[in-house]
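assembly run, all chains below
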Amino acid sequence: MTTPAKDLEFDYSKYGFRDEERYVYKSQKGLSPEVVKQISHMKGEPEWMLKRRLKALEIFQKKPLPLQGMWANPSLANLNFDEIYYYIRPDEKKSRSWDDVPESIRQTFEKLGIPEAERKFLAGVGAQYESEVVYHSLREEWEKLGVIFLDTDTGLKEYPELFKEYFGTVVPAADNKFAALNTAVWSGGSFIYVPKGVKVDIPLQAYFRINAENMGQFERTLIIVEEGAEVHYIEGCLPEGELVSLGDEMVPIESVAPGTLALNSDGYLAPVVSARRRSYRGDLVRIVPLSPGNAFELTPEHPVWALRRGRVARPRADRPATQWDIADARFTDAEPEWVPAGELEPGDLICFPVAVRSLDHPEISDDLLRFLGYYLAEGSAFRNGVSNAPTVSISLDSRDSTTIADVRALMTRLAGKPAGVYEVPAKHEARVYVYSAELLEIAQQYCGVGSATKRLHPHLMELPPERQRLLLETYLTGDGSRHTRSNGRTLVRAATVSRTLAFQLQEILARLGIYAGILVRKAGSESMPDGRVVRRCEQYVLHYEDGATVRRVRFDARRNCFWVPVRAVARRPYEGWVYNLEMASAPNAYLARGFAVHNCTAPIYSTNSLHSAVVEIIVKKGAKCRYTTIQNWANNIYNLVTKRAVAYEEATMEWIDGNIGSRLTMKYPSVYLMGRGARGEVLSVAYAGRGQHQDAGAKMIHAAPDTTSRITNKSVSKDGGRTTYRGLAKVQPGATNAKINVVCDALILDEQSASDTIPFIEVEEHDATLAHEATVGKIGEDQLFYLMSRGLSEAEALSMIVLGFMEPFTRELPMEYAVELNRLIHLEMEGSVG
Amino acid sequence: MNNDLVIKNLHVEVDGQEILKGIDLTVEQGKIHAIMGPNGSGKSTLAYTLAGHPRYEVTEGEVWYKGQNVLDLEPDERARLGLFLAFQYPVAVAGVSVANFLRAAINAHRAEEGVDPRKTAIPVAEFRKKLRERLQLLNMDESFARRYLNEGFSGGEKKRLEILQMAMLEPSMAVMDETDSGLDIDALRIVANGINSIKEQRPEMGILLITHYQRLLNYIKPDVVHVLMDGRIVREGGPELALELEEKGYDWIREEVIGHAS
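ok done. output:
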């Protein structure tokens, strides 16, 4: 049933103001010794750090802006240093919760809808994707090895000696105006110490220690890699929007392209007109409903479809003082309203619509549905390691002969040949199996491969509910998940490591009239009674009581939705993109993790702000460090970053640096090659769109014999954007037998855009080997035509060419970052984002 | 429904110079037509024009296929209508693997207006199976699919990739521009066998073979042979016409045509 039209006519102007920011402490605007003293005091820093800060402030105030007059439109002169807040202490405790880990890291491949096998096949990566699953327990192991990984403020408190020895030695305050500014007002960033000989084989990522100060404006990062040690650090995390329902599954909002069908708040599929993003700085509100797995985040002004608690609660006189309950009569009469997320309170009811879709697919037989249920719960489909035979196998309890017989009969009928049973008596396990290429493909196609990527095919999600019930029943049989409670009711629980599957099952249950909650069980290790330690991935536990309604959850037959109480509302400061969908038809509302939210009418801010970080890295003898960044700052940010490393004898330092966002970026990661045989590498890409200037490059200083450096820079400019490669390769006297290799390739996509290459090379030894190569290209008519003649649209062809151009960079990224970069570029090429 | 490709009075200019001067030609559904002609007669211009290359300007005429004037369509729309051009000089695209490209192209063909592309995308198993089969058909190693599109390919590999694309995209009308050029005799046999097996599997597909030499026609038997000269079709006949050209060269036709004209 649709919502009456009058409910949609609400007052838009109401949402045109910005919520008050909530911070514990906010420094005055502008810079002065007082402000710096206050910052240091708030942090409880040692005296020597305060002195450093004050000294740096003096330097900052004396130094001129670098490279004055050398930029395109977004000149640094537009930056007003007096209009900036230099320190904001947010109103939230530091946390190390796994909940804060970006979804993108966890579910990257799900996002793509590419199951495991194809991923390996297409991308030629294999090993990387499994790493995420074990991150968690590895962190504990690192700590045992003596690896320190903290935010820089905490690092200074806990390891003052290391800071005294190394802080500011690689990038002194006097290095440049922005290094001085950072030294004066720094806050946040990462501190990493890797002891001698320790090789950290999984990248350390900033989100391990996510906290309020992670994304600060003036981060300070210090990395020390002792002799023979190795580490890969990945800076920051990519912004990600909330998950929205497309009917068959939930996907991150930013991946929704115009024309996609998404579920609206009435439970119908409607086309999306546009997916907009805007840069945002301020609080995000996290709404945690009764089912914590469905928690979602919004900007405070974003309207949520809600029944206020005060309108539906039973009057206090009728109930125990500590509990509240819904009064049925009040509930029936109450009209929902659009409430800004920032005004929601615990106890308010929010709307979980039931999808109204039903399309039978006769080719999916009842047998197949029942089989797929078992397969989802306990099945695997694989090629036998020895014989390479295509195998489908379901693991069951060997004592449950009824189920074994049922599964065996099903598989025999579906495969057209007899299924066998293989018993593992020690585990009370019976595996029903059949060798069938056909059944293997069917299982994989309808339900995915591997437990983490199991999902239901869109056709399964469309089936009439009574047919879906068949799959659900065998799914729950296989899992042995029914428990009878003392009150006689049956508690049903099903755990899966696939987030997509958990949400899909929740939706199917809703169509069957059951509101099931989702709990997130953290990853970790568990000690078994026999002494083994079992590592477990993050699990989503779906739970409901058979035949009972969850207290305070109400089904609303008139609107065909469930009303679910909000359990908690929290805020956190955030800087980055926020997203919003515009739907083609009323109601202009979509579902965030299953809950109805309105198209957002927030104002767009346009103040320029400054991000000025300093990164210092010390790589000792024989050690190796790789530092990976992809920055996608909002297009009003000046991103002025000093990144420098020193590499000693036989050490290797690699900067992998991607620049997609910001208004102006100036960043030249450098390596000082201080010991014999040291190696330095900078591999970078830059994309400059409308109003953007990416002024990026590299510096390599050869200060010892037999040192090697390699610089590879790829840049793309479009819609009037400008890219500059600015590089320096220097061979100092005494640095004999140095090898330098510089490659700069620029791609310019239209007449309005530009690219410059400014390479400086200073060689003071006669035997240096030097190779420099620079190309500037445009996308050829012939390349575009070739791809289009195969059916790709112009935008698709263009992004394919650009992504191919960037591939030497992309292939060095961890998979999830590569995917994200590709997606960003794809969006830029489609021009669907303003 | 008539799925012939019908070309009517087609005039095409390149850089202001008229190359095609009124082509009338029908390629019938399910038939193999060959166009032969000397260098500079306009063979490749015809191929590129049919596929919609922006450099070729149509000044007059129509090309009808499946009820649409394809000259009104963008190159990608023509491809999705079922037209395929096997290039004489395929273009390299760095960093794009053959497999990724083929998958994107197949999905572009399967996409439907207003439907979530993930719903229409080719299922994984199906894509892999198909790719494996088609690679085998063309005697290509599976590692081929991981290489970058035409990057560092030999002449023979490029032509095989064109045929692989045709085998994967399953067009209903294929234009093959000098697919035999630059191939040695072994490669020619493999490519020709590939084309024949595709044709066997899809008998309804029409083919327009553009070639300078008769040797390809030893392997692929045309139903009709057209001779293109100076931007016009000047003669049509059966397979025997190709043999005659091979034996006598093009000069005798030129003389006859000029003779007729004068």
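The first helix of chain A runs from residue 33 to 43.

Chain A touches chain B through 43 residues (CB under 8 Å).

not gonna interpret more than that til we talk
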